[in-house]
Design a protein that fits this description.
This protein has about 300 residues and is α/β, with parallel strands linked by helices. The chain has helices spanning about 30-45, 55-70, 100-105, 125-140, 220-235, 245-255, 275-290; strands at about 5-10, 45-50, 75-80, 115-120, 120-125, 145-150, 160-170, 175-185, 190-195, 200, 205-215, 260-265, 270. The chain has one domain: Spore Coat Polysaccharide Biosynthesis Protein SpsA, Chain A. α1 (about 30-45) crosses α4 (about 125-140).
């Protein structure tokens, strides 16, 4: 059975200020995620599952179905704030979904095979998808997941801070810990992140998660239990987010699983701020000019 690609496209794009998941950057108006889907098809994925919000489902489907029909199986699932709460109420005042871990959980009924998870607005490069398929087909199990790792210095924006999962690995390149840093940027002399305790330097050669994970389908049962507890513990924090690294930490330290960190040679780029858009367009134009992609992906 071919692995599935799960694309997280339910974000509110608050920093970017528009629905960046459906903005065209390629020569024929292709979105960033279309390049991911194209690479996934070439690498051997058999289905793509989109995590979206109900309020833009029709427009989203109308955009993608004509392009993907006959090329890869598609399925759509929704991330809404009241999903998988196990009878608990949505905290008063909460206005956004519960985060990437909750988004993965929302795909529970759509995935029955090993699968990869990516963001809709990140360009990962073909090497990432080739390595993900190889892992999912040959190594993935109930006790072994993986993450595609990128060099921190190659994942920054010149236009503001970014959020990254900074990875610590052991001698066998298995993940030891992953810490979500939400305000990373390059200052005059180093790469730093800020938190409540001030400014801290991050090693320039750090491996970071760009939310490209490879999971076994058995992930969903423990994740649902973990999310129920998270909601209980954070009922008074209307901005608390159930990040995928929370699942990873539980898998490693509670379930005694291993997460292999697979280095990727591809150059990452993405759109966090509007000012990033011209850089993304120029990067894609260069890849098309070099022959990496056709001028029109779906013709």
């Amino acid at each position: 059975m071919q692995p599935t690609l799960l694309i997280l496209a339910a974000g509110m794009a608050s920093r970017y200020g528009s629905m960046k998941q459906t903005q065209g950057f390629g020569p024929a108006g292709e979105t960033i995620m279309e390049y991911s889907i194209y690479d996934a098809i070439q690498a051997g994925f058999g289905k793509v599952v989109f995590i979206i919000r109900k309020d833009f489902a029709d427009g989203f489907k109308n955009n993608f179905e004509p392009k993907l029909a006959g090329k890869i199986k598609t399925e759509y699932v929704y991330q809404e704030m009241d999903y998988f709460l196990n009878g608990q109420p949505v905290p008063e005042g909460r206005t956004k979904p519960w985060g990437t871990g909750h988004a993965v959980l929302c795909a529970k009924d759509a995935i029955n095979e090993p699968f990869a998870v990516i963001n809709a607005d990140d360009f990962y490069g073909r090497d990432a998808f080739v390595k993900a398929v190889a892992f999912l087909n040959a190594e993935c199990s109930e006790k072994k997941y993986s993450i595609i790792g990128y060099e921190l210095a190659k994942t920054l924006s010149d236009n503001g801070t970014v959020s990254r999962g900074v990875c610590q690995v052991d001698a066998d390149n298995n993940l030891v810990s992953i810490k979500e840093r939400t305000k990373i940027y390059r200052d005059a002399t180093a790469i730093v992140f800020e938190d409540a305790d001030g400014k801290h330097e991050v090693p320039v050669d750090s491996t970071v998660s760009m939310n490209f994970w490879c999971f076994h389908q058995s992930l969903f049962t423990p994740t649902e239990k973990l999310f129920h507890q998270f909601v209980k513990d954070n009922s008074h924090d209307i901005k608390a987010e159930f990040f995928i690294p929370i699942l990873a930490e539980d898998f490693m330290h509670v379930q005694n699983g291993h997460i292999k960190v697979i280095p990727c040679s591809s150059q990452w780029f993405g759109v966090t701020y509007k000012e990033d858009a011209p850089v993304v367009k120029a990067s894609i134009d260069a890849l098309v000019a070099s022959g990496e992609y056709p001028p029109s992906l779906w013709q």
